From TrEMBL, chain A:
Domain Gcp-like: 38-133
Pfam families associated with the record: TsaD (PF00814)
Protein name (Swiss-Prot/TrEMBL): tRNA (Adenosine(37)-N6)-threonylcarbamoyltransferase complex dimerization subunit type 1 TsaB
Superkingdom, taxonomy of origin: Bacteria
UniProtKB/TrEMBL annotation, chain B:
Ranges where the Gcp-like domain occurs: 28-319
Principal location listed in the UniProt entry: cytoplasm
Cofactor notes: Binds 1 Fe(2+) ion per subunit.
HAMAP family (alphabetical): TsaD (MF_01445)
Residues holding substrate: L139, V140, S141, G142, G143, D173, G186, D190, N285
Gene assigned in the entry: tsaD
Reactions listed under catalytic activity: L-threonylcarbamoyladenylate + adenosine(37) in tRNA = N(6)-L-threonylcarbamoyladenosine(37) in tRNA + AMP + H(+)
Taxonomic source organism: Agromyces humatus
Name used for this protein in its record: tRNA N6-adenosine threonylcarbamoyltransferase
Lineage: Bacteria, Bacillati, Actinomycetota, Actinomycetes, Micrococcales
C-alpha cells in the first residue's frame, strides 16, 4: 500500500493498493485540486484526507510515491519535498515516478491503443512533451521520447494522438509504482525533479517585510 | 506532548541555508546547516531558483544528520516547527511542504513560525541568563535588516523599522563586487579593511537626516551608500589616482555599522528599553560587534549576542521559538498555512 503525491500540475494525493493474490490495483482514496498556485497550502490537508479516506493507519504504508514532473518547479518541489519527508517519517522507501508516465498509463488503461503524445504546460511559452507506444508486458507505459521541452507552436506532430493534460492523478502515480514494484522494475525514475531547464539566475532582492 | 520540555525539530529554508535544528526545551541538541552559498557565488547574490533546488536536495540528509547529532529518533519528536516567512517564496515552500508531511507522518503537531522572531528565539538556547523582555532586536543579514521591539517573544513583537531598499548584507555583497572582491562580501570587506582608516572617507548615512526622522526614524537605506562608494571609486579612477582599497572598505563598513548601531540605540533610548539583542549573519562582522559593545556600554544598555552559529539562518532558532510557544501553551498551527514571503513580524506563529 502506497501514499502517492503529485504536484506537477495541481495537487493530487492518493492512497493505492495492489492485491497480492489477484494483482488487482485499487485507489483507496484520492483528493486533489487543479489550482496551480496553492500547493504548499493544500498539501497537508490532502495527505490527511487521503489517509482518512482510505481508512488506514500510516503504519500500513509500504512506501511513498511521488510524481517527479515535468512541471512548474515551485509547485513540483512541494510534492516531492512532502513525499520525501513522509517517507523519512515512516521509514519506508521513496518511489519516484515520471508524471507523464502516469498520464499515459491512465489513457492506455482507459482503452487507448494508439501511440500517445503527452503534452503539459511548462510555462515560458513552452510545453513539456513525451511520446508513448502502448504498454509493455508488465503493463507499464513504453516511453519512446521525452520528456522534453518544445515551444508551444513547435510541438512535433504526434505519431498517434496528442493528449494535452492539465491534471496528473496521484492515484495513477501510485498504481504505476505498485505495478513496477510487483514486476521488480523499481526504480522507475531517478530521484531528481525533471526540471528540463537550467535555473533562472536573477539574484533576489532579499527578504523584506515592508516595501 | 511533553509541554514542560518539548523535543522540537525545526526546519528553516527561507534563504540559501537549509537548516535543521533539534532542541529540548531551551537546550540545543543539534544545529545542522547545509548552505548553497557556493552555488550563488558566481552570480554575486542569492538566486532564488538555485536556492530552492538546493533545499530540496539537502533537506532529507540534513534532517538525518540533525537526528544523529542529537542522538534522538523521529519517534521521540514532540512537534515539528517550520519557517513560514518572511523569505524567498519558492525556498520557503520546500520547507513548508516537507514539514507538514513530516508532522503528519509522525502524527505530531506543527508550528509555523516567523523567521525574524526566530532570530530572537536563538538567544534562549543554552544560556544561563534567560532572555529579558522587553528588548530591542537588531537583525542584520544578506536578506533582511530589521529593528524589532520584543515585549514578549511568543505574544508581542513589533516591527520598529527595516531597510527600505538593500539589506545590509546585500550592501556588503554589492560593494565588494564593485571593489572587485568575491562573494560573499562581508568577510572580504573585513579583510580588505585591515589597516584602513574608517574616517578616511565620510560616506553617507542613509535616513539619518532630521527630515527622515518622522517617517523613517528606525528604517534603513543602503542603496545610496552603495552608489556613493561607486561614484567615489569612479572619480578616483577617472582622475588616474590609485584607489585606497583599505580606506574605502573601512569607511564603507563604518558607515553601515554606524547607522545600524545608532538606530538600534536610538530605539532603546526612545522606548526606555535598556536591552539590545543582535542577530543575523552580519553579526559575524567583528566591527559591528565592537561598535555595538562600545556604544551600548556607554549608554548603559545590556547587549546580547548569541553565538555566531545561532546568528546565521538556522533551524535551531525555529525550533527554539516553537519550543517557547509550546511551553507557553500556544496551540499548534493548522495544516492550511503557506509560505508567506512578507510575513509581518507581529505574526509570531501562523495560525
Ligand atoms: Zn535570517
Amino acid at each position: 500500500m502506497l501514499l502517492a503525491i503529485d504536484t506537477s500540475t495541481g495537487t493530487s494525493v492518493a492512497v493505492v493498493d495492489r492485491d497480492g493474490a489477484s494483482g488487482e490495483l485499487r485507489c483507496l482514496a484520492e483528493t486533489g485540486t487543479d489550482d496551480t498556485m496553492r500547493h504548499a497550502e493544500v498539501i497537508g490537508d490532502f495527505i490527511r484526507e487521503a489517509l482518512a479516506g482510505a481508512g488506514i493507519d500510516r503504519d500500513r504504508l509500504s512506501g511513498v510515491a511521488a510524481g517527479m514532473g515535468p512541471g512548474p518547479f515551485t509547485g513540483l518541489r512541494v510534492g516531492i519535498a512532502a513525499a520525501h519527508a513522509f517517507a523519512l517519517g515512516i521509514d519506508r522507501p521513496f518511489v519516484p515516478v515520471v508524471s507523464h508516465d502516469a498520464i499515459a498509463w491512465s489513457r492506455y488503461r482507459a482503452g487507448e491503443t494508439r501511440s500517445l503524445q503527452v503534452v503539459t504546460d511548462a510555462r515560458r511559452r513552452e510545453f513539456a512533451v513525451s511520446e508513448y507506444d502502448g504498454l509493455d508486458d508488465d503493463g507499464l507505459p513504453v516511453r519512446v521520447l521525452g520528456p522534453g521541452l518544445a515551444p508551444r507552436d513547435e510541438v512535433p506532430v504526434a505519431r498517434g494522438i496528442r493528449f494535452d493534460a492539465t491534471i496528473v492523478s496521484a492515484g495513477a502515480i501510485g498504481m504505476l509504482a505498485e505495478l513496477a514494484f510487483a514486476a521488480g522494475r523499481l526504480p522507475l525514475a531517478a530521484d531528481a525533479p525533471l526540471y528540463l531547464r537550467a535555473p533562472d539566475v536573477t539574484p533576489s532582492a532579499g527578504k523584506r517585510v515592508l516595501q | 506532548m511533553n509541554r514542560a520540555e518539548p523535543l522540537i525539530l525545526g526546519i528553516e529554508t527561507s534563504c540559501d541555508e537549509t537548516g535543521v535544528g533539534i532542541v529540548r526545551g531551551t537546550t540545543l541538541l543539534a544545529n545542522i546547516i547545509a548552505s548553497s552559498m557556493d552555488e550563488h557565488a558566481r552570480y554575486g547574490g542569492v538566486v532564488p531558483e538555485v536556492a530552492a533546488r538546493a533545499h530540496l536536495e539537502a533537506l532529507g540528509p540534513t534532517i538525518r544528520a540533525a537526528l544523529a547529532e542529537a542522538s534522538v529518533t523521529l519517534d521521540d519528536i514532540d512537534a515539528v516547527a517550520v519557517t513560514s516567512g518572511p523569505g524567498l517564496a519558492g525556498a520557503l515552500m520546500v520547507g513548508v511542504g516537507a514539514a507538514k508531511a513530516l508532522a503528519l507522518s509522525l502524527d505530531v503537531p506543527i508550528y509555523a513560525v516567523n523567521h525574524l522572531v526566530g532570530h530572537v528565539g536563538a538567544d534562549l538556547l543554552d544560556t544561563a541568563a534567560p532572555l529579558e523582555t522587553p528588548t530591542v532586536a537588531l537583525l542584520v543579514s544578506g536578506g533582511h535588516t530589521s529593528l524589532l521591539l520584543v515585549r514578549d517573544l511568543v505574544s508581542d513583537v513589533e516591527l520598529l523599522g527595516e531597510t527600505i531598499d538593500d539589506a545590509a548584507g546585500e550592501a556588503f555583497d554589492k560593494v565588494a563586487r564593485l571593489l572587485g572582491l568575491p562573494y560573499p562580501g562581508g568577510p572580504e570587506i573585513d579583510r580588505a579593511a585591515v589597516g584602513g582608516d574608517p574616517k578616511a572617507i565620510r560616506f553617507p548615512r542613509g535616513l539619518t537626516q532630521p527630515k527622515d526622522q518622522a517617517a523613517h526614524r528606525y528604517d534603513f537605506s543602503f542603496s545610496g551608500l552603495k552608489t556613493a562608494v561607486a561614484r567615489w571609486v569612479e572619480q578616483r579612477e577617472a582622475a588616474g589616482e590609485p584607489v585606497p582599497l583599505a580606506d574605502v572598505a573601512a569607511s564603507f563598513r563604518e558607515a553601515v555599522v554606524d547607522v545600524l548601531v545608532t538606530k538600534a540605540i536610538a530605539a532603546c533610548t526612545d522606548l526606555g528599553v535598556p536591552r539590545l539583542l543582535l542577530g543575523g549573519g552580519v553579526v559575524a562582522n567583528a566591527r559591528l560587534r565592537e561598535v555595538a559593545r562600545e556604544r551600548t556600554d556607554a549608554a548603559g544598555i545590556d547587549l546580547r549576542v548569541p553565538p555566531l552559529s545561532l546568528c546565521t539562518d538556522n533551524g535551531a532558532m525555529i525550533a527554539a521559538l516553537a519550543s517557547q510557544l509550546v511551553m507557553a501553551g500556544h496551540p499548534p498551527s493548522g495544516l492550511g498555512f503557506g509560505a508567506d514571503s512578507t510575513l509581518p513580524a507581529t505574526e509570531i506563529r501562523v495560525a
